[in-house]
Amino acid sequence: MTGRMWPARESGVDIVCFSSIDWDFVWQAPQAIMTALARQGHRVLFVESTGARVPWVRDWRRLLQRLRNRCRGHGGFRLERERLVVFSPLALPLPYARAACRLNRGLLTRALRRFLRGADALNPVAWVFLPTPLTCELARDLGPVVTVYHGLDDIAASSEAARRLAQAEAALFASADLVFVSSERLRQRAMHYRDQAHFVPAGVDFALFDALRRRAEPAPAELQGLPRPVFGYVGGVHRWFDQELVARVAVTLPEASFVVVGPLLEDVSRLARCSNVHLLGWRPHASLPRYIGAFDAGLIPYRLTEYTASVYPSKLNEYLAMGIPVLATGLPELRRFNAEHGEMVTIADTADAFAVGLRRAVAERSAVDVARRVEVARQNSWDARLGLLSGLLEAALRDRTATSRSPLPG
């Protein structure tokens, strides 16, 4: 039985995570939080994204990867690491069609219940990152002892089709036992529906990054020999990545090298035409410190849109943990970060301002600045975040102890 992929419960609780991204996508909060919770002794079932919109033609690689992931396990379930199992569901990609939702709900609820029963997992915690009608129904079907909604982004603003999930998200804001949000804008929205929402922005695996920074390992082979300075970006090249801005800065600074480490999710022909822009594609998360450590500055060149108004980039604290300066466009969360921590991020919204900021960052780099950045990253580590998350979860579980031990419904 697939439920036996989990070891016998010794301590902790059972968590079913409905993720907004797939496990093998760019490493973000869902993977980081669930990995940390599994390390603490909780048993985690990580359900990969069931989708917030109808797939586009350019999504074929992601869909193919989903099929590959499913084949790697048993019935879509695979043991990724101790106490953490990933489920790659197959679902009709029509997230707002009632008939498709009913079919998907029936098939997926059956698979999840079978897994949980096989693991003797009664009344798990449901931790929802993707607030679609389907995930809300799946979470309810499991009879969770506690439901957590964790809003990372303004998903409803990510596309015209995804706007249809706003109603489901509002219901989750109102009904969840705990609500975590990664930006002040999302917190303000949540407060329209409830009395309390907890601000928990993305953190960094500080121990991993700090250890590699201290060892001062050589740059990856593909970066060695590039003309310096080297300015880099880690993360997906998506529609919010301002390719035109980066291309103009690359033309303004022909002596520099610009490195992009992450999946290419859009047409990148504009960047590819720049001889000093190097598109490396996806790299494993554990290797990112070596890449970032080879950068002279880290870039966050996002467009300013309704969606990015609530984005707290996880790469921010990864850059700071390696001690490098950060240049970014004026995202509200980055301006709030500067107000809290001092001018950690140089804000620049034009190509000329970016070029000036990058030249200054290289010229003015000092050991004192490096130490300040590293200390801010330490304060924003996942260890610090998990202390808050775990404490609030334990309090919610204590409040529900009296009703947490009835059999799974159905």
Question: Describe it for me?
Answer:
The chain is an alpha/beta fold and 410 residues long. The chain folds into two domains: 2-203 and 382-403, 3-Layer(aba) Sandwich (Rossmann fold), CATH 3.40.50; 206-379, Glycogen Phosphorylase B (Rossmann fold, 3-Layer(aba) Sandwich), CATH 3.40.50. 40% of the residues lie in helices and 15% in strands. The chain is built from 15 helices and 14 strands. It has helices spanning 29-39, 60-72, 98-118, 133-141, 166-175, 184-190, 206-215, 243-252, 269-272, 288-293, 315-321, 332-341, 351-363, 367-379, 382-399, and strands spanning 14-18, 43-47, 77-81, 84-87, 125-128, 146-151, 178-181, 198-199, 230-234, 257-261, 277-281, 297-300, 326-328, 345-347. The strands form two sheets. The chain has an eight-stranded mixed sheet with strand order 3-4-2-1-5-6-7-8, with helices on both faces. Helix 9 links the parallel strand 10 and strand 11. Helix 1 packs across helix 15. The two termini are 19 Å apart.
